[in-house]
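INFO batch 0412 | record 1 of 1 | parsing
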Amino acid sequence: MPYFDLAEARRKSLPGLLIGTLAGWAIFFLIFGLFAAPAAAGKADRLGFAGQWLLLVALLILGMTLIIAVARNFSPAIDPTLNQEPRCIDVSRRVLTNTVEQGLIFALLALAVAAAAPAGSLGVLAALTVMFVASRVVFWLGYLAGPFYRSYGVMGMQINIVMAVWAVIAVLGYQPFWL
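INFO prediction complete | emitting tokens
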């Protein structure tokens, strides 16, 4: 088995973590005011608003699935049981699996936030959805470039953490300090 230096791997990932975090949140703060909250304040309206924005996450997952399916048709991976997938398909498949996992967490948290948070704060949910999808694309492209470059897409996990905190605060009946 080849030697793996964990300290070196962390050192190589650090620039992506820092740049991905700083650039991602800077872009978020530049765009979040562009998204209007739903006009009506009822729970059904808020859940409908979240559902409409979750379409972006579903389209991302569908797009990834289609890209992998087409790529398999043009490689030995057309028969996945032979274990002859090129690196790009293997990486894309791993990213798809991770995106489904992260996307499910995001979707559940988005619905919890939409059900409990005041309607006026939900424009932030739209911006977080756009940034979540963008971060997953950055994660994918970075991973295709090399495993250490996937750290540039770290914002997706950070968004899920922010959404979890927001959901808990909203369910408890409070408004987060950042809104």
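INFO post-check: The chain has five helices and no strands.
INFO record closed
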